[in-house]
Input
Amino acid sequence: MTDHMAPPNPEDQNPTTAQTTQPAQIVQPPQVDQATQIAQWGRAYTSPDITVYYNIKRCIHFAACIRGLPEVFDTNQKPWIQPDKADANKVAEVVRRCPTGALHYILTDGPAEQPELTTIDVRQNGPNFLRGDLTIAAPSDAEPAGTVKETRAALCRCGGSKNKPFCDGTHRTIGFQASGGQKINTY
Output
């Protein structure tokens, strides 16, 4: 049996025509103005000291809000979010527990939510929970779509979400199973 080798390409040997490798360029993500960001957050629930925003398409019913402040986040009440039922700073603290980014807030007299150290929490049989200064390039059919500036997100890992890249909870209904890592967000 004979080894067949392709003849050398003359262009590979000619230094005047050989291509040089360029260093990778870092591309800065597009800026997202505050009005666009707030529009991506969903419906507003307002009290004198805080406004809580809820995007139903991002909620996977992790229920950190309900466990944290059941008097504010009560699915048996209309509206189900009543931010005036607790101290605004406590409401903000519980909103920050939401691992999906379905909940956000703006304090009337207080600081905006600051990103935490960037982490990815791979959940057993569930999504990837991301925290940090995130920029997500979501497709046009996602909710929200386009460039999404975020501090918290749950990204689909099962492949079944109808709102990719975001998790919509489908992993529970399709029986998705996969190992997870150590829990970082223990809310």
In short: Confidence is low (pLDDT under 50) at residues 14-18. The radius of gyration is 23 Å. Helices lie at 10-13, 34-41, 64-68, 88-95, 170-173. The CA atoms of residues 100 and 153 lie 4 Å apart.
